[in-house]
Design brief:
The complex is a heterodimer. By secondary structure, chain A is an alpha+beta fold. Chain A contains 23 helices and 22 strands. The relative contact order of chain A is 0.05. Classes of the chains: A alpha+beta, B alpha+beta.
């Protein structure tokens, strides 16, 4: 049977990335003065697996290049070659190069070998001018060029063994695979098919002529027939020129007329399978149509590695659940009111087990944050060199666990913040000495759990934020007026405003003005927040606070008329019943609530959602004070209901995004309830920073 | 929902499951809206359900009644009768929701459409389906694929699209009847 190797590609890519990460961190940890043979072995092993894997899947560019890397590593391993600092950099460059090649392949493109070729030269020089012919690369590439068909087509004759169907191979499947390589036309050769009376329905008497139009490699075609080639007659010839191609098509049309491969297949198979074949054919067409669309988007990583301990605890839990279920079953068979306590007990157990099971399942998605931190040693290593700074990176709390989805999406903001600390935070060595600090700066990445959140801190002992410059820049940009008096925290917060950058000059690393606002937005998309604390001369601390998972949320159920909505519990500040005198009416129809010393705009949910409410006036209902986008608003609802954990379902999947709503969930009674999105509500109600200005202005007027 | 009705739906759903694929003819599930008979390709139909209470979506287009829990996925429910400008929009035990899958640019969306009643399953060959030229001039004809004729009657065949959940104007009944 023909196995589609491409289904394993994703696994190979993921493993290779892991291998590259291992190589990278091992390389960065190498102490040249005291070479640890285990570290070299580790690098060697990782390189070796990548070479092996890429060879198996036919990614020869990677295999060739990795082979060279491996050769040098082998020499180092056997002490025939002395590793120097330059070589470590060369290895790091190779790691990057392999990574680029793999990601090119992953997104369905061709890899660019120019960098690899250059690096290969340097390696060969190091290998003491060992002749390149020792490496298979030269020959292989030439071969491939020869095998590549410029004319854009192949003529294939395929005559399988009569037993092909018995061995479980299906020619139709192969043709389908061929069809993915290009446009194919298949014609059956029926010369050897016996009369119906003598026909052995399980044997295959046919042969096929296949014309494949497209720029497929010969190797790709060989791959299709890989599993049957030993028992079959197979010839693959390039189509010489267009004339022959059209001639062949002509033959198709005349000889075979209406017989297409699927129908022929049908004759040999029982009647019921005809439908199946046709179905398959339709599916093939569908996939054909879809393939180009799919290729554009890079596939998100689809697999996850889970420790066996987690799986074991899951199995335990399911076992418990089954026991509870059978106990309840037993109880239900002849239930009398005396057994009520027993039932209650059983139900309690059930809910306990369900909750535990839920927690263990969620734990499967949890990965230690070291996955996100692991890229930083390299980043700091490279960047401090470019910037001529001396920086020590300290990683703390690497084992803190975080949801995989959150992890994937927090990577970029983290990189940005670390770069920012390196570029703007830590000073040049001379300046540091001048300020009485150690020449080497420190950047600390710290992660820990707090409540249902994970907190990630980026701490540097640099110069801190330059408040004066931030303020003058903000005034220049019109973000604040020169007369405003701002607290230091408010000034620090300005760096998260769009289009704000204080870098004196634009460098590679930062200062393009798109930065911190994007960081904040990305983090807010994950329902998180980011804050900065800074002390001039002592450094700054960026704290990111994120929910542990995106799949489940603690919700507060609220009611407006007949509708039940859900507020994320984290966004709720407090809930109050109000009196009239606490409410102020501002011109423009926006009511504000005086809450202790703050003024909070009021949003009437029934109004912005166009639903009927029990209480339309603020006096009768309940005001829920919520915070989103750093703005507090009071939302008028009819009633507060239960608090519960809800599983987030996407509205976009079958519908589309709805403003003011972040998603949906299914309640205990099976009905759908909508989860409210605070910043969306604020936008929907038109309460933005402008309204705030209005409020503070009106405050002045009232005071006067 | 009455048991009798359940049985009817079960039978219908069985028929859906057994729908045969034949290249020459296409099978259409037909239903009634405002006395007219409409049809959708049976391969796009997932199941038929009775009317039940649904959760409304704030500020949705008028034809989108809300969302429904479809065994764990959240699907929008669209009143197709409203899309075709039918005046009488009652929601009774007899009202039927047909769950269809609709191919959009990005993915396949599962959408429920509300109709008056389910009718039958017909086979139409290509020759029995006529395009409707008058309609194809107007953009409201976006859902109408053609007219299928059997011996005794005419069925308006629909090709549902993403427009179901878009902010669109109602196709006026008069325009439809004029065709």
């Amino acid at each position: 049977m023909s196995v589609d190797l491409s289904q394993f590609h994703q696994v190979f890519f993921e493993e290779s990335y892991e291998g590259l990460d291992t190589m990278e961190s091992a390389l960065l940890n190498i102490d040249l003065s005291e070479l640890d043979s285990e570290a070299i072995n580790e690098i060697f092993r990782a390189a070796h697996s990548i070479k092996g894997g890429s060879g198996t899947f036919g990614f020869n560019e990677i295999a060739d290049f990795t082979h060279v890397v491996e050769t040098l590593l082998d020499l180092i391993r056997s002490d025939q070659f002395v590793l120097e600092a330059d070589h470590v950099d060369l290895f790091l460059k190779s790691v990057d190069c392999i990574r680029t090649m793999i990601s090119a392949l992953e997104s369905g493109g061709q890899c660019d070998t120019s960098v690899a070729d250059e690096l290969k030269k340097s390696f060969n020089l190091l290998l003491d001018g060992e002749p390149a012919s020792e490496l298979p690369s030269g020959g292989a590439i030439e071969n491939k060029n020869e095998e590549k068909s410029a004319a854009g087509g192949w003529q294939i004759y395929f005559k399988p063994d009569a037993d092909i169907l018995r061995t479980g191979n299906d020619p139709v499947r192969m043709f389908r695979e061929l069809a993915e390589l290009g446009e194919i036309s298949v014609s059956a050769v029926l010369d050897e098919v016996p009369a119906l009376a003598n026909l052995d329905p399980e044997a295959c008497f046919m042969a096929w002529n296949i014309t494949l139009i497209g720029d497929a490699d010969k190797s790709q075609i060989n791959e299709v027939f890989e599993w049957v080639v030993d028992d079959s007659e197979l010839s693959i010839k390039p189509i010489g020129n267009n004339d022959t191609a059209s001639e062949l098509v002509g033959v198709d049309a005349e000889d075979v007329a209406s017989v297409d491969s699927d129908e022929v297949e049908g004759e040999n198979t029982p009647e019921t399978e005809v439908e199946e074949v046709l179905l398959q054919k339709e599916q093939t067409q569908n996939t054909l149509v879809k393939t180009p669309v799919k290729k554009e988007s890079k596939p998100e990583s689809v697999s996850i590695r889970v420790g066996t301990d987690k799986i074991d605890s899951l199995i335990n839990m399911v076992g418990e659940l089954v026991i509870t279920q059978s106990m309840l079953n037993e109880l239900g068979k002849d239930f009398s009111i005396e057994r009520m306590p027993k039932l209650m007990e059983g139900l309690e157990q059930l809910s306990l087990h369900t909750r535990e099971l839920q927690e263990s399942v969620m734990r499967i998605r949890m990965l230690p944050i070291s996955f996100a931190f692991s890229r930083f040693p390299r980043l700091v290593h490279d960047m401090s060199k470019t910037l001529d700074k001396k920086v020590e990176l300290i990683l703390l709390g690497e084992q803190t666990e975080l949801d995989k989805t959150v992890m994937e999406r927090i990577g970029d903001p983290l990189v940005h913040l670390v770069r920012n600390s390196l570029d703007h935070g830590v000073e040049l060595p001379a300046k540091r000495l001048e300020a009485g600090k150690d020449e080497t700066g420190k950047i600390t990445l710290n992660a820990y759990h707090q409540g249902g959140n994970i907190v990630i801190q980026i701490i540097d002992d640099g110069a801190g934020l330059n408040e004066e410059r931030i303020l003058s820049k903000a005034i220049e940009n019109g973000l604040v007026s020169p007369n405003d008096h701002l607290e230091p925290e408010q000034i620090h917060d300005l760096i998260f405003q769009p289009g704000f950058s204080t870098a004196a000059e634009v460098t590679d690393i930062s200062g393009r003005g798109v930065g911190m606002d994007v960081v904040r937005r990305n983090i807010q998309e994950l329902n998180g927040s980011v804050e900065v604390e800074s002390k001039s001369g002592e450094g700054s601390v960026f704290s990111i606070r994120l929910p542990l998972t995106l799949a489940i949320l603690d919700g507060q159920l609220i009611r407006v008329g007949q509708q039940v909505y859900i507020f994320p519990l984290v966004s709720i500040v407090e809930s109050i019943e109000t009196q009239d005198q606490m409410i102020h009416r501002v011109s423009g129809g926006c009511d504000i609530l005086r809450l202790r010393n703050e003024y909070v705009p009021i949003i009437r949910l029934w109004d912005i959602f166009n639903v009927e409410a029990e209480f339309e006036k603020v006096d009768d209902g309940i005001l829920v004070i919520v915070e989103g986008d750093n703005i507090k608003v009071a939302v008028l609802v009819d009633d507060l209901l239960a608090q519960q954990q809800v599983v987030i379902k996407s509205l976009q999947e079958n519908y589309r995004a709805v403003s003011g709503v972040s998603g949906a969930t299914i309640l205990g009674d099976g009905t759908v309830s909508l989860i409210l999105d605070i910043s969306g509500l604020i936008k929907l109600a038109g309460v933005g920073r402008d309204a705030y200005k209005k409020i503070s202005e009106s405050d002045d007027i009232e005071a006067a | 929902m009455t048991e009798k009705k359940d049985a009817k739906f079960n039978q219908m759903n069985d028929e859906l499951a057994g729908a045969k694929i034949d290249e020459a003819t296409e099978q259409y599930l037909t239903f009634y809206m405002g006395g007219e008979e409409f049809g959708v390709n049976i391969l796009s139909v997932q199941e038929i359900r009775g009317w039940e209470e649904i959760t409304s979506i704030p500020n949705s287009p008028k034809q989108v009644l809300g969302v429904m829990n479809l065994r764990g996925t959240v699907s929008p429910i669209v009143d197709l009768r409203y899309c075709f400008g039918i005046q009488d929009l009652s929601y009774t035990d007899e009202t039927v929701v047909i769950i269809v899958s609709v191919q959009t640019e990005a993915n396949i969306k599962v959408i429920g459409i509300v109709v008056d009643a389910v009718s039958d399953v017909y086979n139409f060959s290509q020759s029995q389906i006529q395009p409707s030229p008058e309609l194809s001039q107007t953009n409201q004809a976006q859902y109408v694929k053609g007219l299928g004729s059997t011996d005794e009657k005419m069925v308006i065949l629909l090709e549902l699209s993403e427009q179901l959940i878009a902010d669109t104007d109602v196709i006026s009944n008069r325009q439809l009847l004029a065709s």
